[in-house]
Structures are given as structure tokens and as C-alpha cells.
Amino acid sequence: MKKRHITEKPLSRRTFVVSTGAAAIALQMPWVRRASAAEFAGKKIRVLTWSDPTGQAAVRNILKPFEQKTGARVIADLTGATSDMIAKIKASAARPQYDLVILSGFGASTLAEAGLLEKLPAEALPNLKQVAAEYQTGADGFGIGYFLWSDGLVFNTKTYADPPKSFGALWDAANKGKIILPPPANLGALELVIVAARMAGGDAHNPDGGFELLSKLKGQVLAISQNSSQMADLFRSNSAAVGAVYSPLTFADFIPKGEYNLSGTYDLTEGFFVDLQFMVVPKGHPGDTEVIAALVDYALDAKVQGKMAEEVWYGPINQNAVMSEQAMKSPYIPTPEVIKSRTVKVDPAYLASVRDDWIKRYTQAVS
């Protein structure tokens, strides 16, 4: 079957309750007292994040409720992709316009390396203590964890009555000419290299067997794509059987509509991948640091994390995230328990060091 190359489309991928017993702490931490007492009236901060459903959900579940609770005015500037955010922060470095940016891990690292970020005081973020240690911070401490973008396997529900249990479905002879893979420069492609390496008995530091295994897919690929709409159509027409490595979140507009024959799973023998998203503060920001810190802490609230997870299928990093029974049973929302037990840990620094080489080898293997 002739392979279809599809143009890649960019992925736009505590409430402060001060009880009597916490009064002494509140006196020492104006962030807590002010946010609880709605004393941010008249203060304004500007937030930059994605324009996709995840960014829109943040406006509904984080920014607007925070405004109502604290009296602060939060202006949301939504844009297409993390690369756009990086460009905006760099372009406005001389006269910073934004107070908080919500973006992916590579974006946080890029801005930190450029010296364009500043750190928030840890004591201003009490909810950070409820976050799993490995997800609290990143980007040399300049990034505060936000949510987890999770990557697994997507599949055709007419091909599989039950979800596949392994990424090995890509190599199933029955799926020849019916598999979809991510473009070489996409994070999912690098994750697939790790999957293949593990299946071949190696790991990220010993990937040769993985590339050899990937080469066996040459001539069996239906499409190399990151365009969710066109990929969903391939599942709807039953042209596609499986795709990896992808996040079901990418297909949130299609999976609930049974007509696309599309579903996803994280319950895989090899585990699944998570990419920590961050909140960062631009250096020289114009807004009040106390308001920014209060908003960041609010985004880490257990109830807020639960709402975001349920609406946009993010993996919550607050270990006490409050999720409905329906959300807890959803195969598309990794619960804190699943995240703790089944994630594949990837060293971002190492992945960055081998990225160019892996892109070339992946291209040669599957194209």
C-alpha cells in the first residue's frame, strides 16, 4: 500500500484556604493571606498559553475562577504552539509583556537557557508539596510543574475489540500497511525509538537494536503524520489499525464520537510516556509576583487539577487530585496511581543530546 505523507500540524500540545490553625503561617506569607482575602483587586497579570482546547480549558478552570476568587484581573493571550511562545518572550525581552507562560518542557528549557526566566519563591507555593517530587520543577528550577502530557498507543476499535496490550501491535503482520507513525522530529518518534530499543533488549542508551526493529516497518507504514484530523479520517475509513507513539489527548475531538472507530490506551506492557508541562515566569515581568505565585499555586490545587484532567485528559501531578468516579475509570486519563506505576522515565537532557542523530536514523529506518 502506498505510504501517505501528511503535513505535520503543530500541536498547540490550592485554592488558598487559611484556617485558624494556619493563621500564623498566613501572617508570614502574604501570598496566602491575600489570595484568601480577595485582596488582589485592581492588580493585573498577563498569561500566555496555547489556543487549543487545553489552553481554553485553562481559561475556564484556572484563570477565570482565580479572578473571581481573588479580584485580580487575568488577561489570557492564547497562541498556536510552544515555539510561538518562545518567539514572543524572546521578542519582548527588552520590555517584557507577560507575567506567566504555560508551555511544554522544551519551551521552558529553551527560555531558561536563554536567561529569560526568574524563579518563584518556593514558600509561595504550598500546593507544590502535594506534587510528586519528580514533577515539581524542571528547566533548572525555573519551571514549575503544571500537568503531564501522556503518550501511548491509539487503535481502531473495529480491529481490536479490546485494547492492545503492547506497542508490538505495530509489528503485527495483520496490520501491515495500516500503521501510522509520528514524523521524525516529533517527540513521539523519539519515544518510539525507546520503545523499540526496550523491545529489542536494549534501552535509550543502547538503541541500535531498536533502530533495527524499526527498519522492519519500512514499507508497512500507511502514514507518517501528526495531523489529528486527517489521522482520525484514516481510522474512520478503517484504513488505519494502530498508531504510536501518540496521546489519546490529541484525538479528544474524535474519540468520543464513535463514528471514528478510534480509541487509545496507556495500559501497555512497555509502559507509557509522560512529558511534563510547565509554568514559567519571564524575567522582568510587569505584574505583581505575589499574584503570579498565587495563580501558579491555584493551578496546582487538587480540585483544579482534577477538573483539568477530566476536561482535557491531562495527567494530574497533584497526588491528591480530586477526580470523579467516571474520570478515574477513563482509559484516557492517567490517574496519579497509574502515573506512578507505569510511566517510562526519560532523561530530557540525554534525549536532547541524541535528538539529531535519532532523527536521521529514524528517518532512514521507517521512511
Describe the structure concisely for a colleague.
With 367 residues, this protein is of the alpha/beta class.
Give the helices and strands, then pairings.
Layout: E1 4-5, H1 23-28, H2 30-36, E2 44-50, H3 53-70, E3 73-79, H4 82-91, E4 100-103, H5 105-113, E5 117-118, E6 137-138, E7 143-156, E8 179-181, H6 187-199, H7 208-215, E9 221-224, H8 228-236, E10 242-246, E11 262-265, E12 272-282, H9 289-299, H10 302-312, H11 325-329, H12 336-342, E13 343-344, H13 348-366
Parallel strand pairs: 1-9, 2-3, 2-4, 8-9, 8-10, 12-13
Antiparallel strand pairs: 4-12, 5-12, 6-7, 7-10, 7-11, 7-12
Salient structural properties:
367 residues; alpha/beta; D-Maltodextrin-Binding Protein, domain 2; 2 domains; 13-stranded mixed sheet; 13 strands; disordered N terminus
* Average pLDDT for all residues: 88
Per DSSP, the total helix count is: 13
Question: Regarding CATH, which class of the largest domain?
Answer: Alpha Beta
Outline the low-pLDDT stretches.
Answer: 1-34
CATH architecture descriptor name of the largest domain: 3-Layer(aba) Sandwich
Estimate nothing, just give the exact number of structural domains: 2
Main sheet characteristics: 13 strands, mixed
Number of beta strands: 13
Q: How much is the radius of gyration in Å?
A: 21 Å
What is the fourth-level CATH superfamily of the largest domain? Periplasmic binding protein-like II
CATH topology descriptor of the largest domain: D-Maltodextrin-Binding Protein, domain 2
Q: What's the overall geometry?
A: globular
Helix content: 25-40%
Order of helices and strands: EHHEHEHEHEEEEHHEHEEEHHHHEH
Intertermini distance: 14 Å
Structural class: alpha/beta
Q: What share of the residues does DSSP label as strand, in percent? A: 15-25%
